[in-house]
Amino acid sequence: MVLSLVVLISGGGSNLRALLEASGDAEFPARVVAIGADRDADGLELGEEFGIPTFSVPFSSYPDRDAWGDALLEQIQQWQPDLTMLSGFMRLLPPRVVSALSPHLINTHPAYLPEFPGAHGVRDALAAGVTQTGASIIVVDNGVDDGPIVSQERVPVLPDDTQDSLHDRIKLVERRLLVQAVLDIANGHVDLKEHSPI
Ligand code: GAR
């Protein structure tokens, strides 16, 4: 089957770019049908570059989190995706959005969860002085980065690493993991229902 995907971003979307490049191969069993954001994210420009529709649902335009979430969900559901991926999406989804999409809702995270959850996974790993961190793909639940793990891989922390150098190396692993996760889900090798958090 060819999996249809909505990808949500908040930033530059370099991991999304990797997925779009992979899905440029006619054999790749997934297509990004829309790119969404919670702000005027730079990565929305990838929509134009790859000919994919985009939408933006700015958090600041809504009276509260639930109203914002409902508007976001409406946009996502218009595309009837098989899978929604958070790729650098830096805002917690309201529980009813998670319930509506789960377990077909995954997130990429730049740490070896459950180590270093939250918005600063790379900075926190460096600050903790660990010698290895990692990258993880998880199913989203109502907690902060604590849903069931789909896949993960270790990344060494080098003595002279800065936040940027470490994050760049983690992203290389993240990109491989997220492309493989999409492949595995599309091919039925990973059944997200078995990872259902709800
Ligand atoms: C990625 O490293 C992603 O894992 C992280 O944001 C980066 C987005 O980079 N997400 C989180 O930290 C979520 N907690 P990109 O916009 O260049 O793809």
Helical percentage:
25-40%
Q: What would the CATH topology be?
A: Rossmann fold
| N- and C-termini, Cα separation | 25 Å
**Tally of individual helices:** 6
Query: What's the multimeric state?
Result: single chain
The SS-based structural class is alpha/beta
What is the strand tally? 7
Strand content: 15-25%
Rg, alpha carbons: 16 Å
Please provide the ordered H/E string of secondary-structure elements.
EHEHEHEHEHEEH
Give the rounded overall mean pLDDT: 96
What is the CATH-assigned architecture?
Answer: 3-Layer(aba) Sandwich
Q: How many domains would you count in the coordinates? A: 1
In the predicted model, the low-confidence regions spanning at least 5 consecutive residues are: none
Question: Strand arrangement, largest sheet?
Answer: 3-2-1-4-5-6-7
- The H-level CATH homologous superfamily, spelled out, is Formyl transferase, N-terminal domain
What's the level 1 CATH class?
Alpha Beta
Question: Which molecules other than protein and nucleic acid are bound?
Answer: glycinamide ribonucleotide
Q: What general form does the structure show? A: globular
Largest sheet: 7 strands, mixed
